[in-house]
Design a protein that fits this description.
With 213 residues, the chain is mostly beta strands. It has 2 domains: 1-68 and 162-213, Sandwich (Immunoglobulin-like); 80-160, Sandwich (Immunoglobulin-like). Helices cover 8% and strands 46% of the residues. It contains 1 helix and 19 strands. It has one helix spanning 4-19; strands at residues 23-28, 45-49, 52-56, 61-65, 76-78, 80-82, 85-87, 90-94, 97-100, 111-115, 118-121, 134-137, 141-147, 154-160, 165-167, 173-179, 182-191, 194-202, 207-209. Strands 8-14-13-10-11 form a 5-stranded mixed beta sheet, with no helix packed on it.
Length: 213
C-alpha cells in the first residue's frame, strides 16, 4: 500500500506532465485584400463597405467553439481611447468579461453602442475619471463602439462563448495554445458577415496545423 506522503509526492511529479498535455493549433487565415490606407490615420481603423464591418488593414479572430464553462471569476480587460482611436481596435473577449474604457486623451470622450448584443452609453467623461467607466458583456455577438464627440472613432468588441481565442498577425498567421483535448469547431471571424469554420479533433499534447484559405 502506498503511503500518503509518497502518494502526494508522486502526484506532484505528475503535475508538470498534465500541464504539458495541452494542445496547440497554428496556421494562417487568408485575409481579404487591404483597402486603400487612410490619409488621416495610418493605423488600423474600422471600415464599412456594403454594410460589412471589418478592420483596415484586415485582421481575423480565430477561436475554438465547444462546451466551455463560464469563468468562475469574470475577467477584466481594457479598451482605451488614445489619440482619438480605440486601442485595441478589435477586442475579442469571453462572455461575462468586464471591459474598462480608460481615457488617455486630453479631452472628453463619450463611448456608446446600439448593438443588439450590448446597448449602453457611458456619457461624457474626463481623462482622470475615477472609477474608470466599464461595462459587463454577458451576451455573445459583435458590439460596435462609437464616440458621440468624435464621429470618426469606431471600435469592435467580439464577445465569444469560449476562453480560447487569438487575433491573427497582419499576415494572417495565428497560434492558439493551451487547448484541451476533444472535438471542437475552429472558427475564423473575418468581418461582421464572414466567419469560416473547420471541425478539429485535438489529442493531448499535440500540435495541429489548420489553414483557412
Amino acid at each position: 500500500m502506498t503511503s500518503r506522503p509518497l502518494a502526494l509526492f508522486l502526484a506532484a511529479l505528475a503535475l508538470p506532465a498534465l500541464a504539458s498535455a495541452e494542445s496547440v493549433i497554428e496556421g494562417r487565415v487568408a485575409l481579404p485584400k487591404t483597402h486603400a490606407a487612410p490619409v488621416m490615420n495610418k493605423r488600423y481603423e474600422i471600415v464599412t463597405k456594403g454594410g460589412v464591418l471589418a478592420t483596415n488593414p484586415p485582421l481575423a479572430v480565430v477561436y475554438l467553439e465547444g462546451a466551455f464553462s463560464p469563468p468562475a471569476t469574470p475577467p477584466v480587460v481594457q479598451m482605451a481611447q488614445k489619440d482619438l482611436t480605440f486601442l485595441p481596435l478589435l477586442l475579442p473577449v469571453q462572455v461575462g468579461t468586464k471591459v474598462e474604457f480608460p481615457n488617455f486623451d486630453d479631452q472628453y470622450h463619450n463611448i456608446f453602442s446600439y448593438s443588439p448584443a450590448k446597448r449602453f452609453d457611458l456619457g461624457r467623461y474626463r481623462p482622470d475619471e475615477k472609477p474608470v467607466p466599464s461595462q459587463m458583456f454577458p451576451t455573445a455577438g459583435l458590439v460596435t463602439l462609437r464616440c458621440d464627440i468624435h464621429e470618426h472613432m469606431r471600435g469592435l468588441i467580439l464577445v465569444l462563448p469560449t476562453p480560447h481565442f487569438v487575433v491573427t498577425e497582419p499576415d494572417g498567421r495565428f497560434r492558439l495554445g493551451g487547448l484541451p483535448a476533444g472535438r471542437y469547431i475552429l472558427k475564423a471571424w473575418i468581418n461582421s458577415q464572414t466567419t469560416l469554420e473547420r471541425p478539429v479533433e485535438l489529442t493531448a499534447d499535440s500540435v495541429l496545423h489548420m489553414d483557412f484559405p
